[in-house]
């Protein structure tokens, strides 16, 4: 029985020369849903009626509706017509008691693109016909299937054009990859050199495994080659762990000259390098990764959490050769078994269809908008940022200390990360701010404004102690 609700008098405005026409109609439909012209539950005009209004073939409108259905924008109801789908409900972002976002979380910002979001979900749905139940009811080989490894090769092709699939393994997230690597490379046999401010996840891993970390000085270009040479000579580390691009937390990126110097010193002293490339894909001015400069001694970890989706828990690890691949596969099997076949398949689908690159572009755009807000408000107070980085570093001036500043912000409902979480020795008076966890730019502005207000007060004025 035909639904009594009248069809929405929707008429897409198609730009002259748009081709193919059915895709243009689907794009306008997605845009009008995003703008609120069409809302969940609206019944679209019957296909023949819309074809007559637009003076086009019925088959063109039919293809447009099918494309919109594939993207998850609309749904057909037998005997009733085509309706705008209800949007998926959003889970609330991590927040504190006051409702302001916890800026201690270093997440890529959510982008506002309904059409792209719908295509991502549609890509997941397509997996039912391509792999089907095997993705959820079967184990797979350690290190990933041939298809998933090739997807990783394609993902890294802009920075590693000569990479072959036999040098790449698929891991269940970057943290898992790091755990497997330090095990496979024998990190317990000697100190591991790290940046003086290093990723907290690696510090935690080292503490868990009783691995000794020895700091290397850093500056605004990252690792200091002179100090690295001194550490190699005096401490004789077997491994260097570092983040050359958009370093966490300082946002520093090593220049090509600096990268070449670090690689040369590592070669001289027989040091193997674990290169954490969490943010490399986000850079719009990419430099050759360390693995491109020294493929024989660098293990390159390219996680998808920061540049694509934190939920996928997939990382691609590039190794020097087949022998290293076999050794690392054994460590992965012992530590974490296999990467989720479903997660790997989703990543491969998004990469193969070009959706992953669209997500990277959307994350970059939203990151730059948020970074501009942060720079406007906190730049005069010494905020350190870098293009395409959604974390930033805020040095503090006396009389503020990092502990007191973080505590006062916590009272105001804002979480930040003091330098203690990153420092191997002698923490600086500074905190890291995550710009991506806020659900909107407006909420980010509110949080940053609160931080600005606190910076402009003295600790005594803001104290609540009585």
UniProtKB/TrEMBL annotation:
Keywords: DNA-binding, Pyridoxal phosphate, Transcription, Transcription regulation. CDD domains: AAT_like, WHTH_GntR. SUPFAM superfamilies: PLP-dependent transferases, Winged helix' DNA-binding domain. InterPro entries: Aminotransferase_I/II_large, HTH_trans_reg/aminotransferase, PyrdxlP-dep_Trfase, PyrdxlP-dep_Trfase_major, Tscrpt_reg_HTH_GntR, WH-like_DNA-bd_sf, WH_DNA-bd_sf. It comes from the Bacteria. Residues 19-87 form the HTH gntR-type domain. One of its GO terms (molecular function) is pyridoxal phosphate binding. In the C-terminal section; belongs to the class-I pyridoxal-phosphate-dependent aminotransferase family. This is GntR family transcriptional regulator. It comes from Sphingobium chungbukense.
């Amino acid at each position: 029985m035909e639904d009594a609700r009248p069809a929405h008098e929707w008429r897409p405005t198609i730009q002259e020369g748009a081709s193919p026409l059915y895709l243009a109609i689907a794009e306008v439909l997605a845009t009008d849903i995003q703008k609120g012209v069409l809302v969940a539950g609206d019944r679209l005009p019957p296909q023949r009626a819309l074809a007559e209004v637009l003076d086009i073939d019925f088959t063109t409108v039919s293809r447009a509706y099918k494309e919109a259905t594939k993207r998850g924008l609309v749904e057909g109801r037998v005997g009733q017509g085509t309706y705008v789908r209800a949007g998926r409900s959003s889970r609330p972002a991590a927040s504190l008691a006051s409702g302001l976002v916890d800026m201690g979380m270093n997440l890529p910002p959510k982008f506002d693109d309904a059409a792209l979001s719908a295509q991502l979900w549609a890509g997941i749905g397509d997996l039912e016909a391509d792999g089907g139940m095997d993705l959820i009811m079967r184990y797979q080989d350690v290190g990933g299937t041939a298809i998933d490894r090739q997807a990783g090769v394609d993902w890294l092709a802009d920075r590693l054009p000569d990479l072959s699939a036999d040098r790449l393994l698929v891991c269940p997230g970057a943290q898992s990859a790091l755990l497997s690597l330090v095990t496979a490379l024998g990190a317990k046999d000697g100190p591991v050199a790290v940046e003086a401010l290093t990723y907290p996840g690696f510090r935690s891993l080292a503490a868990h495994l009783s691995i000794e970390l020895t700091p290397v000085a850093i500056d605004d270009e990252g690792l200091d080659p002179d100090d690295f040479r001194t550490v190699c000579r005096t401490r004789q580390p077997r491994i260097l762990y570092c983040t050359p691009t958009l370093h966490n937390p300082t946002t520093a990126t090593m220049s090509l000259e600096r990268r070449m110097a670090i690689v040369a010193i590592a070669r001289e002293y027989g040091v193997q390098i674990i290169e954490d490339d969490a943010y490399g894909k986000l850079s719009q001015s990419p430099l050759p990764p360390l693995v491109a400069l020294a493929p024989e001694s660098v293990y390159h970890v390219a996680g998808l959490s920061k540049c694509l989706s934190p939920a996928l828990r997939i990382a691609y690890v590039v190794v020097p050769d087949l022998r290293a691949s076999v050794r690392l596969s054994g460590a992965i099997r012992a530590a974490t078994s296999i990467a989720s076949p479903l997660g790997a398949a989703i990543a491969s689908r998004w990469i193969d269809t070009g959706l992953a690159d669209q997500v990277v572009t959307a994350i970059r755009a939203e990151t730059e908008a948020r970074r501009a807000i942060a720079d406007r408000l906190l730049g005069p107070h010494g905020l350190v940022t870098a293009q395409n980085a959604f974390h930033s570093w805020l040095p503090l001036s006396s009389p503020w200390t990092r502990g007191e500043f973080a505590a006062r912000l916590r009272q105001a409902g804002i979480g930040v990360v003091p330098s203690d979480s990153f420092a191997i020795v002698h923490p600086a008076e500074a905190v890291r701010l995550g710009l991506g966890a806020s659900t909107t730019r407006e909420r980010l502005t509110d949080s940053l404004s609160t931080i600005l207000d606190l910076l402009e007060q003295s600790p005594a004025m803001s104290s609540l102690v009585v």
